[in-house]
Amino acid sequence: MKRIFELTLKDIEGMDKNTLIETIKNSEGRTVMAETVITVPPLIYGVSNLELAAAFGSDMITLNLFDFQRPFIFGIDDVGVNLSDVAGALSMMEEIALKNAKDTEYVKKIKKIVGRFIGVNLEPVPEGVKYVEGRKLTEENLKRAREYGFDYIVITGNPNTGVNETTVIQGIELAKKILGDKLMIVAGKMHGAGSGNIYDDKVLRDFVKAGADCVLIPAPGTVPGIDLDLAKKQIDAIHEEGALAMTAIGTSQEGAQKSVIEYIAIQSKMAGADIQHIGDAGYSGVAFPENIMALSIAIRGVRHTYRRMAYSLNK
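That's the DUF7916 domain-containing protein sequence above. Prediction below.
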């Protein structure tokens, strides 16, 4: 079996959930996930943040603020839109987004452009919290995620959404019911999200029991109190329940100096992380590209990083 940084587009397109999970396990803690905000113009004109993250070493790319009712990715869908004509641009983008919503091949087409596993954040916000319907974890949005061809979903909460451990468990249970074995389910909290951090490993075990294939925790050094010892204890608990573990940099430290990223990466690897996530808060909806590469090099060296960066989509 190939390791994740050896996969070509053909490998990725033909891979089911269970094989993806085994591939990540076989990669021995050397899987990189980058998150991107897709609702803002990209960091580099003419290149989407997804493509940029892929070019700098990501194996998996998670879309943040993706709206299932109006899918639109800046850097891809806005090609040909004259943004200087505000009224005309808004009208054209709305038209494109509504057309995308009806296209069940939409994400599969994105995957052909990017050449990586593509996932999406879905947020189990509590009742009464005002939030965009297309971004919520609902039965309708889960069905669309399955139809569009996403490889995985991430059940978590953006800042100030009020997402908590109870709503995450409810979200996992609903996702498992709708998705079955079609998509990998990643769940957990990268930071407080307005309701506090999770320190009790029993909660993480409950996430697995509810149906999560991978549980995420804050990477050591990213939220107060999460150090190597606690991260290792939490990851050991996740592994004991039979799930993958992912550490996440979701506290804007993706915009820190490379030495911080390298330190977090090695700490996460020592703790036993199967996947290492780097967030979207650098400039304009993506981590500093150099930091994505620094994370990759720290956990798998230049040989495998450059392999991932250089693989042709047409192989």
